[in-house]
């Protein structure tokens, strides 16, 4: 029997205004000090995913289409470009995030495509095409924190991610708000668990847990 996934309490982290204000500050810091801003969930979480992708060399080719959902400052894709991947797209619903990521990318002289896209818009998602790898580090979490009807937004997100994946595609998701079992339950109608990317664990009260969950899904 499936379990009901309990919704998270709403937060300003789930609103567009919060991220527009945050990236406005980051743009100023980058221009004034060269600071690219925060890497969501820290560099270790990012590097673990990049290492996992690089190890799938028989399945993920350097010219395969890879998209980063909620790309923020774009550093995830910049690091993938440095690893040799050439068909990279970053999307974010925050125009300020895309302005920052484009500026950093231009300064790095890397051929990465960045676009303003609302993941809740079926039309905008369809226009993106299909991808071998769909990556998300924190965007599903932010959507889950939206103060107004996050459950419906999560449903749209899951359906739209499914549509942007190739039939042989991989969906790599890192979350600090949801456990493995909750993610498998929420995505289970359209996705099947492929693997977990190991993350650091802690022990408390006799139980073992993780600060973040990095999970890989395939289409059903």
UniProtKB/TrEMBL annotation:
Task: Report the top EC class in one word.
Answer: transferase
Q: Which GO terms describe its cellular component?
A: cytoplasm
Classification via Pfam families: Methyltransf_31
Subcellular location, principal: cytoplasm
Q: What is its EC number?
A: 2.1.1.-
- This protein is called Protein-lysine N-methyltransferase
Cell location:
Cytoplasm
Q: Name one GO biological process term.
A: methylation
Give the InterPro entries listed for this entry: Efm4/METTL10, Methyltranfer_dom, SAM-dependent_MTases_sf
Family the UniProt entry places it in: Belongs to the class I-like SAM-binding methyltransferase superfamily. EFM4 family.
Q: What's this chain's function?
A: S-adenosyl-L-methionine-dependent protein-lysine N-methyltransferase that methylates elongation factor 1-alpha.
Does the keyword field hold Methyltransferase?
Answer: yes
The Methyltransferase domain sits at: 61-187
Q: Does the keyword Membrane apply?
A: no
